[in-house]
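anyone seen this seq b4? input:
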Amino acid sequence: MQTKEINSLVLAYIGDTVYENYIRHFLVYKGIGNVNELQKEAVKYVSAVAQAKAIKKMLENNFLTEEEIIIFNRVRNNKNHSHPKSCDIITYKYATGLEGLIGYLDLESNNRRILEIMNYIVGD
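predicted toks r here
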């Protein structure tokens, strides 16, 4: 099976773990040594609102390739209608699209591009 054929929500499922793992590493290497503080800081990056804001900024600044935009849109436009109570459906779909893009890049073993995107998100 080719990566482009994998279910959109499966891409987001994989991307969620890659994204959160990067953020956790980033915060530890930033020098945060307290688990409660790590969790508090992580939410600033891993919440659906923060993820949606990050992907919108990337789109506005033409940071993504055409292929990446296609993958993002495919995942974002998935017919899933559920979302957490902490945000609206549009915000959730943008966040899911970002996670799907990260998942796609991970399954394609494109770690360089994941690193570029994650560094863009955290401001490095």
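The chain has a mean pLDDT of 93. The chain has one domain: 6-122. kinda curious what u guys think
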